[in-house]
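User: Could you check the structure of this?
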Amino acid sequence: MSEESPIGQENATPDAPNGSQAAAILMMLLGEEEAATVLSRLEPDEVQHLGGAMFNIANVSEPEIDGVFDVFVNRARVRTTLGFGVEHQIKGMMHKALGQDKADQVLQRITPTEHANTLENLKWMDSREIANLIEFEHPQIAAMVLAFLDAQRAADVLQLLPEEMQADLVYRVATMGPVTEAAISELDEILRRPITAQGNGSTTRRGGAGEAAKIVNSSRKAAEQRIIKALQKLDKTVARTIEEEMFIFENLNALSDKDLGTLLRTIENDVLVVALKGADEKLRQKIFGCMSSRGAQAVQDEMADRGPMRLAEVQEAQKAMLAVARKLATEGTISLGGKGDDYV
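Assistant: Sure, the predicted structure tokens are below.
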């Protein structure tokens, strides 16, 4: 639910408010219990957004309310009940087709797990509460919690934990495999919200270098540098992988024209041509803008002459450019940009 995803915008009438305002009007017209039921199914940020819109409703005209109803009714007409009560329906089909024992074995493997409910509860807690919750738990449980949070929230939590824990937790996120049933159960006990197990072998996939990179990227610059240095002592390979995930080719857009020009002067033309094959148009134009007109035209002509190229080859060329960029940044020759909260 957002301003970009208005209720029934495609069928809106001239008198119908769009987006959050329309949703807020509908909520205010519902009874308290019905409205509470709707709110209970929303994400925390959606509840906050809609709540704010409800406070801001004032002097809504009757035609506007009628317009909202028209949009709602039009959309409701095209909805079906297909999918409601689907679990009971599928279970009945399976039992009739396979018999109860075989059907239960199949259903145990294909029924979606409900473990997410436990971790969903974390979304409603503030960063300090989560940090207090996991600070004295097993590091693997703490890492699992970080991996399930969005990157910015995870970074906020990470920075509230003792510094000596931070690099280890990022390392655990980066090297995390499937999360076992036992680990989920332990977290259930911590949150004091029991769930029903779906099978002894169930696992959930979270973590990895990409998740770890997002968390570090969302941290303050000083914390980011300290964590990376500590990770290099723990495991140079993992540290290098996280650094590669943190700085991707599109991040070159953040470089100043001067720094980008400096980088381009150190890159072989053949590497640049291949790397730009996989770049978006915005980055291409930025790079061409940092070159002479003749040089930019020569690169564009060679890109056209080469035709389609293998993705793996393009990615290798981009990695080569990024490696040079990181080297120049380490030497202090260029700045990779990023956090805006570091001043001297």
